[in-house]
């Protein structure tokens, strides 16, 4: 069932979203050659503590995972698409890092992700990240009252495929609210004019995931969480929490 949020609830979700935005900004500023993923997780945790917010990631245990998620920050490096667990790995020059973060404040959740290159960038990685951001922007632009979920999916997928990138099957966005994952699912590829109609009060996490080689295949790493590309090619991830309103899409996790 899809819950329609009131305008007051959307305002409250914006406050949670701003915690997310501050954390992602702080992590990006802290990420440098030689910095460990665990150190970045602590940076994000400090932002939560300072805001009096909780983490919807820490301890999250979906059916596919062998253990609860052990951190507040998701850190996916190079060929990791999503769900990377922070470890003692120290970032290297040219690493492509995707970070995903959520915050719970006042009973409401915000969820967002960014990808960027640490140190000296490769042109191919810059193009991959920029395309992920363009796909996200296209999805947000389609998130208007009167459209359907398929219009968002089509907008995202069109940008990804036109650039020659793969889209991991079965993973995409979702509803957000009192819980991190709510109905409806928001695929990253689909047919326009299909699916659930978009209505004022719906709040969605729109999150393109791109595989550089153009392949769609992936596998779970031995930790049971991290999803990696089968061919070792790099991946990028971008995400915002977006409210559907009569006056247009409102990005609740804007930085």
Describe the protein's architecture and organization:
The protein is of the alpha+beta class and 255 residues long. Helices cover 28% and strands 23% of the residues. The protein has 4 helices and 13 strands. A hairpin with a 2-residue loop joins strand 3 (96-105) and strand 4. Helix 1 (7-30) runs antiparallel to helix 2 (37-51). The longest helix has 24 residues, at 7-30. The two termini are 30 Å apart. The mean pLDDT is 98.
- End-to-end span in angstroms? 30 Å
Shape: globular
What structural category characterises the helix and strand content? alpha+beta
How much of the polypeptide forms β-strand, as a percent range? Answer: 15-25%
Number of helices: 4
Query: Strands across the major sheet, in which order?
Result: 6-5-7-12-13
Question: Which value, in Å, is the CA radius of gyration?
Answer: 17 Å
Give start-end ranges of low-pLDDT stretches: none
Mean pLDDT: 98
Number of strands: 13
H-E string: HHEEEEHHEEEEEEEEE
What percent of residues adopt helix (DSSP H or I)?
Answer: 25-40%
Largest sheet: 5 strands, antiparallel
Keywords: Aminopeptidase, Hydrolase, Metal-binding, Protease
Subunit structure: Monomer.
Cofactor: Co(2+); Zn(2+); Mn(2+); Fe(2+)
GO molecular function: initiator methionyl aminopeptidase activity
């Amino acid at each position: 069932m899809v819950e329609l949020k009131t305008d007051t609830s959307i305002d409250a979700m914006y406050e949670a979203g701003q915690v997310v935005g501050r954390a992602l900004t702080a992590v990006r500023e802290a990420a440098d050659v030689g910095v460990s993923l665990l150190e970045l997780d602590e940076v994000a945790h400090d932002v939560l503590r300072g805001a009096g917010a909780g983490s919807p990631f820490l301890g999250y245990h979906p059916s596919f995972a062998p253990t609860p998620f052990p951190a507040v920050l998701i850190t996916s490096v190079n060929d990791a698409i999503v769900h990377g667990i922070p470890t003692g790995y120290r970032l290297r020059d040219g690493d492509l890092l995707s970070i995903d973060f959520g915050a719970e404040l006042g009973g409401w959740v915000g969820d967002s992700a960014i990808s960027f290159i640490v140190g000296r960038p490769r042109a191919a990685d810059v193009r991959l990240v920029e395309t992920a951001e363009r796909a996200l922007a296209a999805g947000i632009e389609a998130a208007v009252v009167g459209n359907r979920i398929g219009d968002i999916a089509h907008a995202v997928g069109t940008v990804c495929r036109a650039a020659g990138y793969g889209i991991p099957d079965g993973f995409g966005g979702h509803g957000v609210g009192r819980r991190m994952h709510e109905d409806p699912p928001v695929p990253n590829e689909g047919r326009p004019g299909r699916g659930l109609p978009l209505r004022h009060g719906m709040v969605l996490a729109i999150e393109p995931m791109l595989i550089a080689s153009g392949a769609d295949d992936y596998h779970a790493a031995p930790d049971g969480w991290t999803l990696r590309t089968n061919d070792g090619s790099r991946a990028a991830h971008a995400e915002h929490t977006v409210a559907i309103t009569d006056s247009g899409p409102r990005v609740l996790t804007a930085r």
